[in-house]
Structure formats: C-alpha cells, structure tokens
Amino acid sequence: MQPLIFLDIDGVLNSHHSDYELYQPYIKNLKTLVDATDAQIILSSSWQMFVKKESNEIVPKNKNTHGHALVDALAKENLKIFDKVVDDDVLPSNKRHKEILNYLRKRFNYEINYPNFVILDDDDFGFNSELTLKGHHVKTFAGEYNFIPDDAQGFNTTKLTEALYILKSLI
C-alpha cells in the first residue's frame, strides 16, 4: 500500500505573507516528500470545501479562486491531490482527527493494518488522543507575526525531515 500524506493547507503550505497564497518552498518540500516515499496526498484541510472529486480527480469547485490556487500551485510541482477526507456534500469540521480516522476506516474497510501515513497540520486537533493517529503528526508552525522567518514556519526543511522519518521508519 502506498503511504498517505494527510495535508492541511493553512499554516503548512502558506505563510504570514498571505492566508491564501501558497508558499512555493513549502510546496517544493512536499514534492520532495512525495518523491521520496511515493505517497498519495489526501486533503484534510478546511480547504476541502474549495475542491471536489470529479472522475476520480480533485478539481476546483466552480470558479473558486482558492481551489484553483491550490490545484495550480501543486500542479507546478507535478503534484496532485489524490483524495479528501470528507465527501463533497459534507463541510469539514474542527474534529479533524475523527475525519482522518473515519477516512482510514472507510477506505481500508476497517482493516487493522493501515498504510503508513503522516499528518501535516499546524493544529493538534486531538491527533495524539487517538491511538491509531499517535506518532503520525508533524506539527508545523503558523507564524502570525511578520518577525517570524519563513524557515521557522510552515512545511520547512525541519518538518520535511520529521515527515520523512515517520513515513520511512514505519515502512
């Protein structure tokens, strides 16, 4: 089974420069992670509401600029979102740990052995309270102040190393 990357956007792929402009160095780090592990990207972010699944592909919803920004920014690095944790008709909640757990159970038919996975998120959302998710979370830092340098926030090289360790050590 291919490893999975559960991807949040805010605080992971964007920075204090803009809430909706994705930061290319963080996307390049995501590309490195995908290339090194052959992982599939599963969108677990509130940005799920900006995209939909159409013919087994994740595409922008309507003419939404956020959905286009996400899909286009990832495409520049030859990355695609494989799936999202909630269905198109369901709004993402603040219980992200439950959404990810439900996704794993549903997609893998309640098997005990899930594929290796990592959760990239700047919030905790109870990830360590669920045994199945414990040890899979890479917590990024979302800088809300301009004095925090870009390399200390988001999916920086330090966080890339953590994610690689999780995915490669659990193989």
Mind sketching the topology for me?
Layout: E1 4-7, E2 14-15, E3 18-22, H1 24-37, E4 40-43, E5 51-54, E6 57-60, H2 65-76, E7 81-84, H3 96-107, E8 117-121, E9 137-139, H4 157-169
Parallel strand pairs: 1-4, 1-8, 4-7, 8-9
Antiparallel strand pairs: 2-3, 5-6
Helix pairs in contact: 1-4
Structure overview:
The protein is of the alpha/beta class and 171 residues long. It contains four helices and nine strands; from the N terminus they run βββαβββαβαββα. The chain has a five-stranded parallel sheet, covered by helices on one side. Strands 2-3 form a two-stranded antiparallel sheet. Strands 5-6 form a two-stranded antiparallel sheet. Strand 5 and strand 6 form a beta hairpin. Helix 1 runs parallel beside helix 4 (157-169). The longest helix has 14 residues, at 24-37. The chain is globular and about 35 Å long. The model has no long low-confidence stretch (mean pLDDT 86).
